[in-house]
Design brief:
The strands form 4 sheets. Strands 1, 2, 3, 4, 5, 6, 7 and 18 form an 8-stranded mixed sheet that branches. Helix 1 packs parallel to helix 2 (76-88) and helix 1 packs parallel to helix 7 (301-319). The protein is an alpha/beta fold and 322 residues long. 21% of the residues lie in helices and 28% in strands. It has 7 helices and 18 strands. The protein has helices at residues 30-41, 76-88, 139-142, 151-154, 170-180, 202-207, 301-319, and strands spanning 3-4, 19-26, 46-50, 93-96, 99-103, 109-113, 116-125, 129-131, 147-148, 162-166, 185-189, 211-214, 217-224, 228-235, 241-245, 248-251, 255-257, 287-289. Strand 14 and strand 15 form a beta hairpin. The chain is elongated, with a radius of gyration of 22 Å. The longest helix is centred in the last third of the chain and has 19 residues, at 301-319.
Length: 322
């Protein structure tokens, strides 16, 4: 049961209901709602704070085919709503509210929202990460309709077709390799004359007879007709332009973690991700990072969900004094 407090730290009102939550979950993506489900089933008093819609970035995905249990796939919005309802079935509450600040030190943590502060003994950060975009006209309108940010999610829609991958790091190289096994042809577009990806990717890509490299090239235009038709590229050295016809493009130029709320309180890696290992525990006791916002090898719905379950396991230990 929650501990009743009339006021929180610094004399502020703790919560409209006047209590400290066992767990405050910031972000209602798959990691957040899995944590909420496991917390509720463990008898913890948990609340999810989400500013957009259940599912987070997942809610924007037109078709999810790599999450177990959906033999015909499911759209991301529906999957997010199912996760929300599953957690709320066991007593979790969801608040659609913007989180404006965090105070994560001490035995009772404070989460400042647009509707006032909330207090919790533990905090799970499930704020996610968004793909970096090309920032070109028409990109928003074509998202999911020719322009994609996850080859593992959407590559199967282009079986036997021609696609392009933009980027030169590990993610871009891995995406190009995956797509080369599915698609008829893959253009790999990189602004430099060699990949930044680890050497392990180089030989397989060079040996793939359906991968064509577009070195020293940047995308300057998304070509549209009735739908996505291809790309216009510019050589960064000569300025020469060319057109690449393709059915889809996969943008793999990095991701931007939503870790700003934790800055100055939790250590971040060079990419801005919260430093937390497979236990999801951060440097601060009682604070956990799950899903795409934490350092990890693979960012997928299923790995975010796994993080949520792991976080609750260690939160229970923490709350029990372990």
């Amino acid at each position: 049961m929650p501990v009743i407090l009339e006021n929180g730290p610094d004399g502020q009102a703790a919560d409209p209901q006047g209590h400290i939550y066992d767990m405050i979950i910031v972000g209602g993506g798959p990691g957040g709602y899995t944590a909420a489900l496991y917390a509720a089933r463990a008898g913890l008093d948990a609340v999810v704070l989400e500013r957009m819609a259940a599912g987070g970035q997942m809610a924007l995905t037109e078709q999810v085919d790599n999450y177990p249990g959906f033999d015909e796939g499911v759209d991301g919005f529906t999957l997010g709503e199912k996760m929300r309802r599953g957690a709320e079935r066991f007593g979790v509450s969801t608040r659609m509210v913007e989180v404006e600040g965090l105070e994560l030190s001490g035995g009772v943590k404070r989460v400042d929202t647009a509707e006032g502060p909330l207090l919790g003994r533990t905090v799970v950060l499930s704020t996610g990460a968004a793909p970096r975009k090309l920032e070109l006209p028409g990109e928003e309108e074509l998202a999911g309709q020719g322009v994609h940010y996850c080859a593992a999610c959407d590559g199967m829609f282009y079986r036997g077709k021609t696609v392009a991958v933009v980027g030169g790091g590990n993610s871009a190289a891995a995406d190009a390799l995956l797509l080369s096994r599915v698609c008829g042809k893959v253009y790999l577009i990189h602004r430099r004359d060699s990949l930044r990806a680890e050497k392990v990717y180089h030989a397989p890509l060079m040996e793939a007879d359906n991968v064509e490299f577009c070195w020293n090239s940047v995308v300057t235009e998304l070509i549209r007709g009735e739908g996505f038709q291809g790309l216009r590229l510019r050589d960064v050295g000569t300025g020469a332009e060319r057109t690449v016809e393709c059915a889809g493009v996969f943008v793999s130029i990095g991701r931007k973690p939503a870790s700003g709320l934790a800055e100055g309180q939790l250590p971040l890696d060079p990419g801005g991700y919260i430093l937390a290992d497979e236990t999801t525990r951060t440097k601060l006791p009682g604070v956990y990072a799950v899903g795409d916002v934490r350092t990890k090898a693979l960012r997928q719905i299923v790995t975010a969900a796994a993080d949520g379950a792991v976080a609750v396991h260690f939160a229970e230990e923490y709350l029990a004094g372990g």
